[in-house]
Amino acid sequence: TLTFGIFFTPVFFEPSMFGPNGATLMMLNPLAPILEGFRLTITQSHNLLEPLSLVTNNGIIIPVWNPWYLGYSTLWSFFGFISSAFFFHRMEFIFAEYA
Q: Please, what is the Cα angle at 59 between 55 and 62, to 5 degrees?
């Protein structure tokens, strides 16, 4: 399933390639804002504190970047850390190294 998950991060595809709904859906992956932020900063010299939108030939506005994406990713990181620490503490007694 991890190999399949690479298609939900902006590694092979840019989120704007999937339209406005697809871009928003792709950015729900907590790793996607980090990778997309790197790409925008390095290749386009974009300031990540400013939102970025793309207008297609049909006049459709696609949100490419929003500064809140980093906050979303940070919240998932803290939630993952806290839940992992809690799980480790509850299962600690079954480890062989427990003294």
A: 40
> Could you tell me which residues come within 8 angstroms of residue 54 by beta carbon, excluding any fewer than 6 positions away?
16, 61, 62, 64
Name the DSSP class of 53: E
Contact 23, 62 (CB under 8 A): yes
- Return the closest-CA partner of residue 46 out of 65, 73, 27, 20: 65
> How many C-beta atoms surround the C-beta of residue 27 within 10 A?
23
User: What is the C-alpha separation between 26 and 69, in angstroms, rounded?
Assistant: 11
For residue 8, how many other CB atoms are within 10 A of its CB? 15
Q: Which amino acid is at 10?
A: P
Q: Is the dihedral of CA 48, 44, 32, 83 positive or negative?
A: negative
Residues 6+ apart with CB under 8 A from 77: 30
Joined tokens for residue 65: 């970047």
Which residues of the chain register pLDDT less than 50? none
